[in-house]
Structure formats: C-alpha cells, structure tokens
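Re-run requested by the PI after the first attempt was lost when the workstation crashed. Everything re-entered from the original request form. Ligand of interest: zinc ion.
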Amino acid sequence: MKKTFIILSVFISIVTATGQDTNDKIVLQAMHSISSQELMDNVKIMCDEKYAGRLTGTKEYQDCAEWLAGEFSNFGLSPAGDNGSWFQWFNVPYTLVFPNCGVSLHIPLKKGGVISKQYRYITEFVPGSTSGNGEVTGEVVYAGYGITAPELNYDDYAGIDVRGKIVLIERESPVSPGAGAEKFNPWYKYSFHQHKLENASKHGAVGMLYNYGPIANPNNSYIENFIYVHVGDSVVKDVFTGTGFSYRDNLEKINKTLKPSSFNTGKNVTIKMSTRHFPDGKGSNIIGLLKGSDPELSKEVIIIGAHLDHLGNCYEMMPGANDNASAVAVMMGIAKAISQNHIQLKRSVMFISFGSEEQALLGSKKYIENPVFPLKNSVLLNMDGVGAGKSISITAGENYPTLWSIVRNENDAYIHATIKANYFPNLGRPRLDASIFMSAGVPSLNFATYGTPTPYHLPGDNIKIIDPEIMEDVCRLLFLTTVKMANSPAPIR
Ligand SMILES: [Zn+2]
C-alpha cells in the first residue's frame, strides 16, 4: 500500500511537472514570437500624420483609438469599456494650436528708441498649448512663481500691478518635492500650471511668459483672451539684462527666504498665438480584457497600462513616438503574445490605453472612478516612454517589493536587460497614470527606458529616435512578468 502510494505520488509529480514544463515551453515560445519589427511598425502607424499627434478630444485621437480597438479585437481580447464597447468616455476640453505664433521683445535703448528681437520657434519658445487666440503687447513684470498663498504668507503679486501687463513666471514652487512631504505639501496645490495661469489672469495680467522648457504641454487651463507662451533661457536672460537683477541670485533669494522678489522690467513683449478652443471635447480610454480561468483568482486583475495620447499640433505635429506610441506598441505585443499563443491565465489580465494623460491625467482618473475590477483586486504595470535608451527603470519598484521581485526574477532568468527600481514618494504634481493608481491604493509599477538623450514634448520625439531592440526587451520582460503574476499561487498584492 505504502509502495503504491509512493509510486502514485511520483507519477503525479511527473505529470504535474510535465504539464508545467509544457506551459513553460509555450510561454517561452510565445516570448520569442514578440518581434521588434512588428513593435516598430505599430509605432509608425500611431505617429502617422492622419492621427495628428493624438491629442485627446480630437477626431484624429479617436480614429487612432478605433484602430487600437480593432487590433485588440483581432488579438482576441474582449471589450471592457462603457456598455460593452471598447471605450470608456470622459469630457476633455482641448485647444488646437496653429502656425503663425510668435514672440518678440522690445528693448528700450539708453539713447532713445527701441529695438525688437524676434524669437525662434522650438529653440526659444513653444506656444502655450492651451493659450487664448490673439496678440498682446505689454510690459513684462517678473512675478516669481506666480503664487498667491495667503495661509503661507506668500504672494508673488504683492506690491506689483500687473493689470494689462505680461508676467514672467517660474514653474513649480519655492519649495520643491525634494525637500520632503512635510515641507512640500503646503505648496503642492500652488505648484500646478493651472494655479499660475488662473492667478495671473485674476490679477489682471493679459499674458504670460512661462519659463518652462521651452516644451509643449496641454496640461493647463484655458482662459479666453489670455495669451501665453513657454520660453527658455534666452528669453529670460534678455528680459533680465539691464534690470539690475541677476536672474540666478534673485531666484535663489526667493527660494531661500520664501519671500517674493517681483519687479517691473521696463521691457515690452509681444506674444501672438493662433489657437482655437473646443470646450466640449470627448475623450476615451480603450479597454480590452483577457478573463482568467480560475473561478476565484480571475476576480483579480493585472492591468497593463500605456497612454495613447500625445500633444497634437503645437504648432508643428508632435508625433510622440517615445511618449507614448512606444508603450502602446509594447502593450499590443504583450496582448498578442498572450492571446494568440493561448497562454493559460488564472488571474485576469486587462489592457488599458489611457486618453488624456497629457491633459491632467483625465483618463486614469476616469478609470479610478469607474473601475472594471474592484481596485482592491488590481495591480497596474504601466509604461510611459519605453522606446529610447539603453536601460529600463521601474518607478515604485521599492514601494512594491512583491511585484518588483517577479520582474527582477524574470529579467535575471531570460531578458538580462539593465534594470533598476526606485522608491517613488508620489509627491509633486502627478505626471504618470501610475501615480493616480498608487494614490488610489493600487500597487503599481511604471516602466520607462533611459540612457540616451531623448527629446521630450517636442517635434523631435519622432520615429527616428526609437530603438526597436529596447522595446522588444521591455515587451518580452512585461510579457513574462504578466504571465507569472497571473499564475502566481502566492498573493501578488
Ligand atoms: Zn507620456
């Protein structure tokens, strides 16, 4: 009897091991089916002119979303959006920016007369992506961070009159997130672009030079007839020249003393922006599901996230190849490899391509308010910018060691990419869909690639900078990680 039992046990474990081996073999075969060429082809499609830079709210964005939904359907995913569709809808006002934008500074000469200096698009200015339409000329008033915070006894507008004028404003706040939560949190709400723009307008300014890049960014408020532009060092330097203030010293003084140091510069600026605002835009997340097979574990979900949107035209087309066509292509690669190779999944796996990451993360916020699976049963593996660079960084890996150890093990066993995890305090303005999920209590990792200079929020983020090999590494790593998490006998969160 004992002997039979032993033989039976050995037999059972051989069968189990063989079953497991077969599944492992299928998984590895599926991993090898992921091709860098196919990932690259999909990046190219998303960067095509017909999708016009995928600004959420536009018809071109939704055309691209329909294409992605069609691919999800071809792969064999099930729609998990509103009312059995692929799409989860939300409202998103948006602004189109056209060519014929310009910035010039009018510098009074000591001997009388004025010279005007015209700035160059991209290198010296980028249009404010939600600027009003029209042209303004006025004196430039330096107004520090543009913050009015009564409870902090701080007001960049105290003692200056900006009515009818144009303010020059810094990004962020005098206290940075790096100073730690306790010091930074009181400043948090004032560090938003929206506060700066609305506050400038409230004080009567007609326009704003925003010392921000210059890069494009549609994450801001729209105020009719309020004209603004993003500028960089060359404009700031010209504004400060001859004022008696050193730009660096003045800014350091504000940061150190937490006392504003605003002043009239005596120079005029003309900003011309050509825009049109659409207050009633509709945007969507695209959601595809692979339901798990285990009656209990399938109630849990591993979400693969990658925002589809980018910045549209500002005023040239911004293709957003790295940010974030690369990640959507990788997401598609994972979905296809799992589904078409019939990989067994105990937990459910869901693919969400978010809209409006670039417009205040409206897509991920919408999902958090209307989740398909309970948030307490969810984990998120998000990607943002995985198409350029040599190495892979995993934001919040140290916050969620269970998730991170699975990623690390799969990398050590099969991919051998250079990867690193970090601790993510999730302070400051959230700049990732993953940070919205983390704030809602969902364990989340964010994958990005780094190690080569990569244009960000500029027309240079185009197909030429994409490295198909790093995308393939990320795709294979996330594919293996997803399958491992879906079938893990141990809890994953
Ligand atoms: Zn992005």
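Saved to the shared folder this time. The first helix runs from residue 2 to 33.
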